[in-house]
Inverse folding.
């Protein structure tokens, strides 16, 4: 008989730097205010790394937390999937750096999905586990944004949004008679969704340095103009985020024959409290079921989902047996979702 494998979430871990930067702190660097930031985004403070710390260091610490919680040794991992938009180096990616810091020899791949990176990595890991190829997979999302944002009036629409941090998840294979479905109470990942729309690629991006056709990786002029900082049309991002997050949730609900009220917990990417509230309202999901911690950490891009999951688990808001929906949207445009019986 053919063996059937499903992926169960064994643990979720996180790490954020100690240094807290409040909205009030930012008002000393640019014309902004605590009210402006909180009213539009929900953010009150974020964490920034000290000098000397690398993105892979944050990822390593989150990975250790996840491994300790699942009591798995790094040497027993079959695969590491890392995701970030702020890697230590242009190449190689942070996957191999984290693998080296964990002193293990599992293959380590990097997956570029920006704010959707973690949902895409979960989808990828789930496919490897279902195929029977791997049994223990570590996923890490880690970001240092504080070094690529501009603390001045020019960059204020972007710089107030982002924070540094890392999260990690251990997914394990389990042999089952029937794959988990929304109705059979089998624990594990039930469904995944990934989406992209490259026509939005330049609406939220860091375009230089790069190989976009210019003769140089980055010119001296571009460097002095700080062309390496992110650009964003906030309103376009906002509109597309609400649309794609709503569509993703609706698709997952419809194809699993679920009503919004069947979902126990929604864990959305933490980009903006108003985006997530608008999506929850359109879906008709009760406010208390939607997890938020953007107030404390800002948008930590690929780390935001596992950081939010980790806290929700630690606080007892996500428990075994619950039906959990993750949702993410970001640069690309990219979006994704996972339906999990926790
Ligand atoms: N503090 C104070 N004023 C600011 C500011 C700041 N940090 N940033 C921009 N402003 C000003 C603008 O200059 C503009 O001034 P003007 O009216 O005199 O021209 C005014 O505030 C309104 O700017 P606008 O960009 O239209 O504001 P908004 O209501 O769209 O809010 C965002 C801006 C960025 C908060 C909002 O668009 C947003 O959250 N978008 C989604 C971004 C996101 O989530 N990105 C990551 C996706 S993964």
């Amino acid at each position: 008989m053919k063996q059937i494998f499903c992926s169960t979430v064994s643990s979720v871990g996180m790490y954020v730097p100690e240094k807290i930067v409040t909205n009030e702190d930012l008002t000393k660097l640019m014309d902004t205010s605590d009210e402006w930031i909180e009213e539009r985004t929900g953010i009150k403070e974020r964490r920034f790394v000290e000098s000397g710390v690398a993105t892979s260091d944050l990822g390593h610490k989150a990975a250790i937390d996840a491994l300790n919680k699942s009591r798995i040794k790094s040497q027993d991992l079959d695969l590491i999937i890392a995701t970030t938009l702020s890697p230590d180096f242009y190449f190689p990616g942070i996957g191999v750096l984290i693998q080296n810091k964990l002193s293990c020899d599992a293959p380590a791949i990097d997956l570029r999905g920006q704010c959707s990176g973690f949902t895409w990595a979960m989808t990828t890991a789930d496919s490897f586990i279902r195929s029977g190829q791997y049994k223990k997979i570590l996923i890490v999302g880690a970001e240092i944004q504080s070094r690529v944002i501009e603390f001045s009036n020019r960059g204020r629409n972007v710089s107030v949004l982002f924070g540094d941090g890392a999260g990690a998840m251990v997914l394990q294979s389990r042999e089952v008679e029937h794959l988990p479905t929304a109705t059979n109470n089998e624990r594990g990942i039930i469904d995944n969704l990934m989406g992209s729309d490259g026509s939005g690629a330049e609406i939220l991006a860091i375009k230089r340095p790069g190989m976009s056709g210019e003769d140089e990786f980055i010119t001296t002029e571009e460097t002095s103009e700080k062309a390496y900082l992110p650009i964003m049309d906030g309103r376009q991002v906002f509109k597309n985020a609400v649309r794609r997050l709503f569509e993703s949730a609706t698709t997952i609900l419809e194809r699993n024959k679920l009503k919004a009220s069947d979902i126990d917990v929604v864990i959305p990417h933490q980009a903006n409290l108003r985006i997530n509230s608008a999506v929850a309202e359109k879906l008709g999901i009760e406010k208390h079921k939607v997890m938020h911690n953007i107030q404390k950490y800002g948008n930590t891009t690929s780390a935001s989902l596992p950081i939010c999951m980790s806290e929700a688990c630690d606080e007892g808001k996500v428990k075994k047996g619950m039906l959990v929906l993750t949702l993410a949207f970001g640069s690309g445009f990219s979006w994704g979702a996972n339906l999990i019986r926790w």
Observations:
- The chain has two domains: 5-175, 188-341.
- The CA atoms of residues 98 and 163 lie 20 Å apart.
- The pocket of coenzyme A is lined by residues 32, 36, 40-41, 115, 156-157, 160-161, 234-235, 237-238, 271-272, 299, 330 (CB under 6 Å).
- The longest strand covers residues 4-15.
